[in-house]
């Protein structure tokens, strides 16, 4: 029994590894998601730079997260919405649903982290927007991309099963992402003002809790969703 | 009749709390004055909403396990009833805010997050309308409902505690129990909460039975 269980675990880890490798390989071949979303972020930042004549730092901070919100919806919703029906059936036959959701989430988290860090660098360059505590801001950016990917991966799975993609994705995910966004903006504002890091522990803890909650709920629910 | 005692109890408690809520003496406080009586209506709405949404999550979990369409209808009808209570909670709160805080929508954290929590359930209802196939709809909407519930708990119970609110009991404001020295208000407030929760369950029960009758008529 225990042996069987361990064997299962090994299998799961192996499957996750292969699925992530598959995603990375596909991405490397087309370089569509990374380049596309990067271009999206860069052009949005330019649009904002040209539209806002003068702004204070609080607005700039909120603007950064709004840009990242739309960029990550576009980047992550691709994970389930753009898989062809045939490929979904193929993956269904060879991998367990747990391995699939975990690997998609990990891959999306990696993608979002790279994107957010590049976008942040570009944003700082264009807007001359220097947070006083850059380390904390980076931590917030990484936590933010993690939360975006956990939530949007599950919601995009739900939206893709429901049939009509983009519109439903926005309706379903905005109310869920708002609490995360509020906490993120608060945390990054602390980082911009260079407040003592102990002040921000509450927000960091809350973000971690939301992530753990969302991740465990999606791991529990995804097998039901995947089975058709 | 003996099975319906809770409906009678709910009706009696709501009538009692309405009459007593308007007639009994309340602590005399500046600014809030007689509008303090809104406590007997505004707060029970939220309690009823949370009870109804919890019922809905319970039936969503059940419907995922059993694939029984009846469980799915129970889940959606309790959300329908809960959304009505949530809207009433927002309206009673806005009226109260108009008189005490000066503006119907004062951008108080609890107001904002409660509105977002209701958006979450509107999204659930829209998701249901987007899917035609009945079994698929039951499954996917049950999954979204379970996924959304912990987020609603965070919105209503965790986030408001992180920032200052105009609501009593938050951000250094004393809660109502600080003024309710002789427990006079509690004698109305607790029965009001229980009464409105029971009425909410009754409304949900009626909505469910109506849908069930329609479904049986269609299948014949």
From TrEMBL, chain B:
Q: From the Swiss-Prot or TrEMBL record, give the protein name.
A: Heme exporter protein C
Signal peptide start and end residues:
none
Superkingdom of origin organism: Bacteria
Report the transmembrane regions from the record. 5-23, 43-61, 82-101, 113-131, 143-162, 188-207
Residues forming the Cytochrome c assembly protein domain are: 34-159
Q: Name where it mostly resides.
A: membrane
Which organism was this protein described from? Answer: Pedobacter gandavensis
Its placement in the membrane is given as: Multi-pass membrane protein
Function description = Required for the export of heme to the periplasm for the biogenesis of c-type cytochromes.
**Entry keywords, A to Z:** Cytochrome c-type biogenesis, Membrane, Transmembrane, Transmembrane helix
Against Pfam families, the record matches this protein to: Cytochrom_C_asm (PF01578)
């Amino acid at each position: 029994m225990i042996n069987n269980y361990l064997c299962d675990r090994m299998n799961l880890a192996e499957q996750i590894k292969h699925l992530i490798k598959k995603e990375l390989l596909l991405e490397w071949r087309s370089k569509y998601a990374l380049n596309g979303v990067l271009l999206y972020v860069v052009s949005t930042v330019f649009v904002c730079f040209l539209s806002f004549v003068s702004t204070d730092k609080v607005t700039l901070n909120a603007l950064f997260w709004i840009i990242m919100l739309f960029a990550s919806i576009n980047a992550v919703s691709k994970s389930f919405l753009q898989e062809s029906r045939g490929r979904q059936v193929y993956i269904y036959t060879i991998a367990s649903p747990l391995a699939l959701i975990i690997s998609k989430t990990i891959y999306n988290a990696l993608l979002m982290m790279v994107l957010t860090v590049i976008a942040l660098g570009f944003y700082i360059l264009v807007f001359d927007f220097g947070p006083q505590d850059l380390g904390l801001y980076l931590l917030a950016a990484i936590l933010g991309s993690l939360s975006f990917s956990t939530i949007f991966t599950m919601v995009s799975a739900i939206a893709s099963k429901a049939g009509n993609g983009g519109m439903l994705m926005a309706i379903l995910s905005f109310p869920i992402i708002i609490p995360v966004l509020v906490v993120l903006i608060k945390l990054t504002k602390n980082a911009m003002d260079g407040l003592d890091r102990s002040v921000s522990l509450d927000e960091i803890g809350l973000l971690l809790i939301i992530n753990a909650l969302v991740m465990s709920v999606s791991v529990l629910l995804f097998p039901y969703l995947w089975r058709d | 009749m003996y099975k319906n005692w809770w409906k009678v109890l709910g009706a009696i408690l709501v009538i009692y709390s309405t009459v007593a809520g308007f007639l009994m003496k309340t602590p005399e406080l500046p600014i809030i004055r007689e509008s303090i009586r809104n406590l007997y209506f505004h707060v029970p709405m939220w309690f009823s909403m949370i009870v109804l949404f919890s019922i809905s999550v319970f039936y969503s979990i059940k419907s995922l396990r059993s694939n029984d369409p009846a469980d799915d209808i129970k889940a959606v009808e309790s959300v329908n009833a809960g959304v009505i209570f949530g809207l009433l909670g927002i309206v009673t709160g806005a009226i109260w805010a108009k008189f005490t805080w000066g503006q119907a929508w004062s951008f108080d954290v609890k107001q904002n997050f409660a509105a977002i929590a209701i958006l979450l359930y509107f999204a659930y209802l829209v998701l249901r309308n987007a899917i035609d196939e009945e079994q698929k709809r039951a499954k996917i909407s049950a999954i979204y409902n379970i996924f959304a519930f912990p987020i609603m708990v965070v919105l209503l119970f965790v986030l408001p505690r992180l920032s200052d609110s105009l609501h009593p009991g938050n951000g250094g404001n004393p809660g109502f129990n600080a003024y309710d020295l002789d427990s006079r208000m509690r004698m109305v407030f607790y029965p009001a909460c229980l009464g409105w929760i029971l009425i909410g369950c009754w409304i949900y029960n009626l909505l469910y039975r109506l849908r069930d009758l329609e479904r049986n008529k269609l299948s014949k």
